[in-house]
Amino acid sequence: MANTKIILSRGVPVTIISQVNAIGAVTPEFCVPAIPGGPAKVQFVSAGSHSVLDGNIESTQDDGTTWNTFQAFDFIATPILNIEIPPGIGYRFNVSNITGGPSDIIGSLR
User: How far is residue 40's CA from residue 30's CA, in Å, rounded to a whole number?
Assistant: First the structure.
């Protein structure tokens, strides 16, 4: 059974991860649609009582069989993360360190 996937929509903030408080790969996966003008620009923020929250955004092109590091994140050093994300593949957060929490990770297509 495939994981649930969240499709980000322009201008609509979506809680991708709700109440994360442990390390490891977190579901659900998310993806972005193809948009005119090139790769989608996505903004991620965290909300919660953490003092450390970092890890990697991972990508898959084979429906979750293989995951590769796409982009590192550290929501203390960079509270608002703005990145370009190619459409058509799946992504997930893999949390390496969290102190405090639980916390949410929210994404919005720009």
Answer: 13
| Regions of the chain short of the pLDDT cut 50 | 1
Containing structural domain, residue 92: 5-109
- How many beta carbons lie within 10 A of that of residue 87, not counting itself? 14
* Nearest CA-CA partner of 32 in 1, 75, 70, 78: 70
Instruction: State how many domains the chain has.
Output: 1
Alpha-carbon gap, residue 6 to 37, rounded angstroms: 22
Global pTM reads: 0.91
Per-residue pLDDT at 69: 97
CA distance 4 to 29: 6
Rounded to 5°, the CA angle 35-74-76 comes to 120
CATH number at residue 86: 2.60.120
Around 103, how many Cα atoms within 13 Å sit in the side-chain half-sphere? 26
